[in-house]
Please model this.
Amino acid sequence: MTFEVTLLIIKGVQKTSLIDYPGNICSVLFVGGCNFRCPYCHNSELVFDSPELPVMFTDEILNFLESRKNFIDGVCISGGEPTVHRGLPGFCGRVKKMGLLVKVDTNGSNPGMLKMLIENKLVDYIAMDVKGPLATYENTAGANVDPDTIRSSIGLIMESGVDHEFRTTVVPGLIDADDMRKIAQLVKGARRFAIQQFSNGSTLDTSFQSVEPYPEDRLEEFREIVKPFVGSCEIRGT
Ligand code: SF4
Model:
């Protein structure tokens, strides 16, 4: 399938990352805009697509990737939320034609876009945030979320055969051990799961800057809860 729209405007680039694509060296591309407002988000400039951010057009980015091709295995497209952009499938196709792997980070709100990427073999790795148990998703995502879209995205990803991970940022006051049990049930059978430490350095809702992150032993406790349900479970960000 060819895609009419192949343009994706990039608002930030990290030339080389050893941690954003498990097992691979990648460049990270950040898109602007997001349909969630997670109160603990530390990317508010990208979420609000601030006019202060640099603008890089598709051809410029593709030329940049061409020049990096011998130093990286792939590209991680992050944000913001990549799946709100119509140009994502066409852009992924152009990157894959260069011989690079494509990883997409997503909040899981657009199962239709994920299906298109999967069915057209435009993505090699999907990392989806699971913000919390479905019943309280609006609190953790800071937006109206239809729980069925989240459930659909999780199912699609797990059945796709595409390498994947799910991850949850554990914010005190929003996520506790009982929530982790519910999340573990939701992603039962997933290949990888990551428990992400919350950082209070710069948050979209500034009241979260006074929330102290969980100590490491609580993160270990959460890991023990999730571990039996998934292929592997790691703690990140400590
Ligand atoms: S943390 Fe939430 S608000 Fe921030 S980019 Fe991710 S989904 Fe959007």
